[in-house]
Design brief:
Layout lengths: L2 H8 L6 E7 L5 H13 L4 E5 L10 H12 L4 H14 L3 E5 L2 H7 L1 H10 L4 E3 L9 H9 L3 E2 L1 E3 L5 H10 L4 E4 L13 H11 L6 E4 L5 H7 L5 E4 L1 H23 L1
Parallel strand pairs: 1-2, 1-9, 2-3, 3-4, 4-5, 6-7, 7-8, 8-9
Helix pairs in contact: 2-11
């Protein structure tokens, strides 16, 4: 089942889906597995597995630190792919690779896609790769039914959104505000209008992220977006209270 079909099928019984985020190897792969087990038990629908990178330019301080600590502990790309394969064999949610293009470039685009497919990944998010430079990667991915997730932002013109929408496949990720991940976003009229603008330019499901931190945010997006992305809030909950904090967060999101 393709990513878009999976989301559409899940949406038949849920007002909005939840996508969570895990940095591979932080604090450890064992802790990652505990976090994913909690996410599965609380009905999380999709998970981004972030392959750590030394310069995660789209990420805020929490994720920058997590990336650094994972790399310092020796996490490798091979380990991340092995972990993804284990995760996709154990859990029912769809898994996306999130990372930066340097990882793909060093490996080679076709080898990256081969390994992603072999690990059971549904697609990938590469926030530092402009659409114009992703033509070959994205076209090969789509041919293999791997979703190259297009990012739409508040600064995108309607002309740009049209171009992004034409290239969208599987799902679009709408960035709720300017800046990097981590800061709180008020899900008000400006965000909902942005989602409406993006919706005009694509037929694929829409996820909204950057600053989604509680049930009130998810409720505000219900009826407008298909997926709410909970990243920094989950990492913050784990760092502050471990498994119990993560359990409480996703319990509140799934009620």
């Amino acid at each position: 089942m393709s990513l878009a079909e999976y989301i559409q099928e899940k949406r038949k019984t849920k007002d909005i889906l939840i996508m969570a985020h895990v940095v591979c190897g932080f604090p450890s792969f064992e802790d990652n597995m505990k976090a994913l087990d909690i996410m599965q038990s609380k009905g999380v629908d999709l998970v981004e597995l972030q392959f750590p990178f030394s310069e995660p330019s789209a990420d805020g301080p929490l994720f920058v630190q997590a990336n650094e600590e994972s790399l310092k502990s020796g996490t490798t790309v091979d380990q991340c792919f092995d972990f993804m394969k284990e995760v996709t064999s154990l859990f029912s949610f769809k898994v996306l690779m999130m990372g930066y293009y340097n990882t793909v470039f060093k490996m080679g685009e076709e080898e990256f896609l081969r390994r992603l497919a072999n690990a059971g990944g549904a697609g990938f998010i590469l926030p530092d790769l402009p659409l114009e430079e992703a033509v070959n990667l994205n076209s090969v991915a789509i041919a293999e039914d791997l979703a190259p997730i297009v990012l739409m932002t508040p600064t995108s013109s309607d002309q740009r959104l049209a171009k992004l929408g034409a290239a969208s496949y599987g799902m679009v990720y709408v960035i709720a505000r300017k800046g990097v991940t981590g800061s709180k976003t008020i899900i008000g009229d400006s965000v909902l209008k942005l989602v409406e603008r993006c919706r005009k330019h694509t037929d694929v499901p829409i996820a909204v992220g950057f600053g989604i931190s509680g049930r009130e945010d998810v409720d505000a997006l219900s009826g407008h977006a298909d997926v709410a992305v909970v990243g920094s809030a989950a990492l913050r909950a784990w760092k502050q209270s471990g498994a119990s904090g993560l359990h409480d967060l996703f319990s509140s999101l799934s009620r």
